[in-house]
Amino acid sequence: MSSAASADVIGTLYRDHHGWLQAWLRRKLGCSHQAADLAQDTFLRLITARRQEAFHTPRAYLRTVAHGLMVDHFRRRELEQAYLDALAAMPEALAPSPEERLAIFETLFHIDSLLDALPDTTRRVFLLSQLDGLTYAAIGEQLGLSLRTVKRHMHAGFAQCLAALL
Fold it and tell me: Are 79 and 109 spatial neighbours (Cβ–Cβ below 8 Å)?
């Protein structure tokens, strides 16, 4: 499909479904401003993805993309609130500047997304090692995994982290 034809198809999808999508998001979120932002983000994803199912089943595709964006939105808000709670507990003299807060928050969100992309067992193994400081043997015992399996999951976790840095 040529870029002009693709733009026409996307324009038609936007005209035909934007109002419906924004109303659906508004019902889910309870906020028309957030609904408008997420509807726009959904169509941006559509423009960049150029997936054929978007043209065959547009509402199902748009709902799926919008739902994923909504989950990310709630997750980000939850992470931000946890960070703000931790900041509130800090002595004011140690509190980071607004610029540092933003950088830290963006890093936390990136780490959260990276960990979320790991399979469940790999994420659990990785967090038990890196956050709880458990040895591989202790992780294996706790999760009922062999030492070799724990090492394989740790390797996958570190590989994901390394890939994110590159």
Answer: yes
